[in-house]
Amino acid sequence: MAGVSVAHPTADVADSAVIGEGSKVWHYAQVREGARLGRNCIIGRGAYIGTGVELGDNCKVQNYALVYEPAKLGNGVFIGPAVVLTNDHFPRAINGDGSLKSAHDWEPVGVTIHEGASIGASATCVAPVTIGRWALVGSGAVVVKDVPDFALVVGSPARRVGWVGKAGVPLESAPNDEWICPQTGERYLETNGALKEADS
């Protein structure tokens, strides 16, 4: 472990984990072998970061969130309290013959979350799914299919109910398939069910 500005004495951080400069790992959090955290990340109380999980810079993983391998998080991703990122298509404790499953009896699948996206408290992302840039998953949602960039999704199963901008505020509809952020004035353009910044 190198470059940690704060690692609470109760945290369990594997020697082979790579922790970026300025990152903080708080009470009773666990960061497993080979995990890679970028700069200025915050890992909250009781959170779990699985073996080989990758986090970009400036990520926040809130208290008691479970980020199972092989999840990959881009820069600036927010993981709310008690969020779960799963990693198994068909979970079982035992094989058909009753023997206990081992690491060799299944193949982990991961959740990928792109830059700036936020996952609300107690949401579950069922691997394999991809959460797009700057998307917002509402609290308690169950995500079972990919989420587009800038999408606001809620419910179980999660469905898109609107769009959000980089500020995280729901966008307001404007003429000609445009959407406007009421907080920043930034403009977005919707084309064929996808949203992008109007000036991109």
Class per helix and strand makeup: mainly beta
| Biggest sheet overview | 9 strands, mixed
Number of domains: 2
Rg, Cα atoms, Å? 18 Å
Tally the helices: 0
Could you give the distance between the termini?
39 Å
- Specify the overall morphology: globular
Query: What strand order characterises the main sheet?
Result: 1-4-7-10-13-16-19-21-22
> What is the CATH topology descriptor of the largest domain?
UDP N-Acetylglucosamine Acyltransferase, domain 1
SSE series: EEEEEEEEEEEEEEEEEEEEEEEEEE
The helix content is: under 10%
Report on the structure:
This protein has no helices and 26 strands. Strand 23 (172-174) and strand 24 form a beta hairpin. The strands form 4 sheets. Strands 1-4-7-10-13-16-19-21-22 form a 9-stranded mixed β-sheet, with no helix packed on it. With 200 residues, it is mainly beta.
Summarize the structure.
By secondary structure, this protein is mostly beta strands.
Feature tags:
200 residues, mainly beta, Ubiquitin Ligase Nedd4, Chain: W, 7-stranded parallel sheet, 26 strands
Layout of helices and strands:
Blueprint (H helix, E strand, L loop, with lengths): L3 E4 L4 E2 L4 E2 L3 E3 L4 E2 L4 E2 L4 E2 L4 E2 L4 E2 L4 E2 L4 E2 L4 E2 L4 E2 L4 E2 L26 E2 L4 E2 L4 E2 L4 E2 L4 E2 L4 E2 L7 E4 L4 E5 L8 E3 L3 E3 L6 E5 L2 E4 L3
Parallel strand pairs: 1-4, 2-5, 3-6, 4-7, 5-8, 6-9, 7-10, 8-11, 9-12, 10-13, 11-14, 12-15, 13-16, 14-17, 15-18, 16-19, 17-20, 19-21
Antiparallel strand pairs: 21-22, 23-24, 24-25, 25-26
